[in-house]
Amino acid sequence: MWIILGLVTQIIGISLQIDLWVPTAIAGEECLVTEVLDGDTLYVSCNNQKHLVRLIGIDAPEEWEVWYEKSTLFLKKMIEKKPVRIESDSYKGDVDKFGRKLRYVYKDTLNINQTMLALWRAKEFSYDTTYQKYKTFKITEYFSIQNKKWIRPYYKKPFASNCYLEWQTIEHGQKQIFYKDEEVTNAQLCKEQVRSCNNGILSGIYVYNTCRIK
User: Fold this and answer.
1) Full-model pTM
2) Better-scored residue on pLDDT, 3 or 190
3) How many domains, the chain?
4) Quick check: 104 and 131 in contact, CB under 8 A?
5) CA distance 159 to 110
6) Residue 96, class by beta-carbon neighbours within 10 Å (0-12 exposed, 13-18 middle, 19+ buried)?
7) Are residues 142 and 169 in the same domain?
8) Which domain covers residue 182, as residue numbers?
9) Which residues on neighbouring strands pair with residue 132, listed in sequence order?
């Protein structure tokens, strides 16, 4: 871990003299990372409430792409089953179109999103709108690429099919939360499942987009 932090400090410290994002105090919400799904998506528990979180500003390899295992394992070692703070970005809004909370994640004062870029376990990705730390992240990615010791092959997504349901389309490589039942008598009975689309094949079996209390 200290070796990793040393590499991050070297890349971030050199590249971000203008805009260094290693604050001494972190705003946001205290949470526990309960499960890392891949290099940019994870589950957290905050005040006994479970949330699916998508890391702002980065895009990590999917299951069928180069470096998926290394990216996912790296994030697991950093934060899975550990306390973190999560922070929103006013430019991005609270959730994406799949219902995932858009957040920066901090372990102590280390920005995990930026660390994934610094050690090239993910690439910068702005989605449909920019974000507050865009300049910082782009510079971090640039200097990470220049340092040939740590660079990995820049993965490219292959042409693949989307997943089609009667009422909606889920794009290849995307994930969405579905529920087992549309209506329940108690909130604790709302069972959710993250379904992912991989080249036209949709994982999971739950079909409802919402779960309402009768």
Assistant:
1) 0.63
2) 190
3) 2
4) no
5) 35
6) middle
7) no
8) 163-213
9) none
